[in-house]
Amino acid sequence: MQLTHNPIEKFVIVGGGTAGWLAAATLGNIFKDSNTQVELIESDEVNIIGVGEATIPPLIDTLESLGIDLVEFIKATQASFKWGIQFENWYQESHSYFHPFGEVGQKIDGHDFYQCWLKQKAEGDNTPLMAYSPEAVLSEKNRFFVPHQAMNTPLAGARFALHLDAVLAGQYLRKFSENIGVKRTVGHVESISKTIDGNISSVTLKSGETISGDFFIDCTGFKGLLIANALNTEYQDWSEHLPCNRAVAVQTKLTGNTKPYTVSRGQKAGWSWHIPLQHRTGNGYVFCDKYITDEEAIQTLLDNVDGEPLTEPRVIPFVTGVRDKVWNKNCLSLGLAQGFLEPLESTAIHLVSKSLALFVRMFPTKKPNAVLQNEFNRRIIGDYQEIRDFLVLHYCTTKRDDSAFWRDWQQKQVPASLSERIEFFRQSGGLIPGVEELFQPTSWYAVFDGMGVIPNGYNPTLDALNSETLAKSLAAGRSALEKCAEAQPSHDEFLQQYCPADEAIFN
């Protein structure tokens, strides 16, 4: 049997920003020693949406897979570190909880730590769950650590992400991509040509230049120039599940210590984010215009920031959802062209990376393959649905009744898939197992606990453990974690010593 081989010879990426240049870096890295060409078209007439981003730990793996020096990347993007998210005023006003990365506690005699904690709670121990989280304890103390020095300590399992400037990240990835052979063309796409079977064959720029390719990647933002306009791919509108439809963003001067976590603060008609970078703070207010005007949202945001504004507030409208086909014919959509989920859990860049990683695993040839496309679309849309459900969990479990926005959430019907998860957790204190899911048990436990969702009981097998021995084990682990965290440098000390912001960025 002879294997067919009809390789793609040229990729054309339309649109820059973080999504476009991450795609360019990924493909350019794969094909840097081959004849396959990668060309990115970047318009000088389109503004980048990037407003200063929080990320999640998989980004670190993505950067390392590309061979990017993490310290250099942090310096160039003015990045700081992130242990997780501090949620304020979500369950109730003046209430807060922490969602960390990594695991909380360690298994005890083969038993899941969360179940051990539940058993102790049932017996009257009111120690908070987050007292056993390395990230939560380090965040509370405003500390970071030297990773290789944390081996064989209670901090060994801690995972971190970055707060970074999205515009600077795109610029860094552009330089990286061009250095490995990616061609950059500056121009505005005015028309798109297709073959008789509906595939994209070329794009024509305002200058008159025509650029042909075998496969196209759409990174043109909400416009979806290729995936929507040229290929007429429909969009699944999830506004019924996540009704926030606008965001206002503003950058402010950094004041005080640089917190190693994102702050997400519940507001009357949505929530605000506060992301500390080394040189400034990124702030925003995600809201629903059914409950508040743009002007009111802008004023609310300005009333809730620390430091002098560095930019004029700008309002960004959006519709939560995802394309019916994120890969359609010979076009893959990424970033905002693919879909949008409000940045409550900082998943935007991850969805770009995840899409690219899966695309590489299912790499096509020039010949269309419906089997690959269908499975790819099923998996990526499944990722969006998982994240959507996790976001809805933050809202639907609220006890706030101080505004119409939060009262309406208590009456809203949640997706059936989430309803099943919540009920399973209430009955068992456990989670329905998934496949390659982003949010691992710690994440669900943290939000369930923070939002006051308590299981009916613990797993009865825990009764085989001696309660006194279990209590001593938990207390010893908690004490060791506290002592180890206390010995670490402050977040700002670590940044200044190991990865201070590149001063050239200011010039």
From TrEMBL:
Gene3D superfamilies: FAD/NAD(P)-binding domain. InterPro entries: FAD/NAD-bd_sf, Flavin-dep_Halogenase_NPB, Flavin_halogenase, Trp_halogen. One of its GO terms (molecular function) is monooxygenase activity. 7-chloro-L-tryptophan binds at K82. It comes from the Bacteria. L-tryptophan binds at E345. Keywords: FAD, Flavoprotein, Nucleotide-binding. SUPFAM superfamilies: FAD/NAD(P)-binding domain (SSF51905). The active site is at K82. FAD binds at G16, G17, T18, A19, V189, L336, I349. This is Tryptophan halogenase. The lineage of its organism: Bacteria, Pseudomonadati, Pseudomonadota, Gammaproteobacteria, Alteromonadales.
